Amino acid sequence: MIKSFETEKSLVRNLAQVFEEKKPSRLKRIFTHTNLTTKKFKDIWMSWWETDVPPRLEVDFIFAFEDIKKVIDNLLLVAVEVEFFRDIRKSFYDGLQQVLGFSLFGFDSLVLWHIFHERISDEDIKSRVKAINEIINGFDLPIVYMATKINEKSEFRFFAPIESYTYNKPDYLISYLMRLCSDKRNPLLSVDKKPFGPFHEEVRKRRKTLKVMLKIPA
Questions:
Q1: What is the DSSP track for 5-68?
Q2: Can you tell me the distance from the alpha carbon of 123 to that of 111, in angstroms, rounded to the nearest whole number?
Q3: 78 with 107: CB under 8 angstroms?
Q4: Sign of dihedral through CA atoms 40, 46, 49, 51?
């Protein structure tokens, strides 16, 4: 059960605990609030900025799934940007900029997850989901977009990519997210994109470094 809806950070922390208890076997590790621009990750970003202080970039969730497709190796590394809507004052496109930035760090899949408080009306949610879907699909952005309403039992009702009328358990959400990410990959890592752009190998190198920094076995 979610202990607090006070802040986005507390929601992410509490959800991480729920997911740890309910995680499927293919979910190997969960990381929360990982700041990719600390000195710990310096080897990833040092070639971009001449100073020691790059722009701040924090990933709310990093999910390390087993990749049965083995597109690159046996790991499906997913970056998730969470935007929690306690009311309707937030913009519908919140989080879009951040999740696109994650692509340069070598994540296999990129997720924008809008979580709406249970008190927000379905009509208000649907209007925001429609708008962000038009942007993502219209520009063919390589982003998995997920919109859910959450209740105090840590159950989720989907508004995107599908709309449901019942609440689902956390383990279903994680398994569903894994399937979505398996089918939509970061094009900067694509093995099918030929000829490779000049950035392709660099992004793959960052992915390897990211795994080392997160202490994930090769």
A1: -S-HHHHHHHHHHHHHHH--TTEEEEEEEEETTSGGGHHHHTTT-SSS-PPP-EEEEEEEEE-T
A2: 23
A3: yes
A4: positive
Q: Residue 141: CB partners within 8 Å, gap ≥ 6?
A: 100, 135
CA distance 187 to 192: 9
Quote the tokens at residue 177. 């997210």
Pairing of strands 156-160, 144-150: antiparallel
User: Do 31 and 62 touch, CB atoms closer than 8 A?
Assistant: yes
Task: Per-residue pLDDT tens, the chain, 218 aa: give them.
Answer: 455 566 899 999 999 999 999 888 899 999 999 998 887 887 777 777 666 656 678 999 999 999 999 999 999 999 999 999 998 888 999 999 999 999 989 999 999 999 999 999 999 999 999 999 999 999 999 999 999 999 988 899 999 999 999 999 999 999 999 999 999 999 998 766 555 566 788 888 889 989 999 998 76
Instruction: Kindly state the DSSP code that residue 82 receives in the 8-state scheme.
Output: E
Q: If you compute the radius of gyration of the chain from its CA atoms, what whole number of angstroms results? A: 17
CB environment 175-188: b (16+ within 10 A), e (fewer): bbbbebbbebbbeb
Q: Specify the DSSP class assigned to residue 83.
A: E
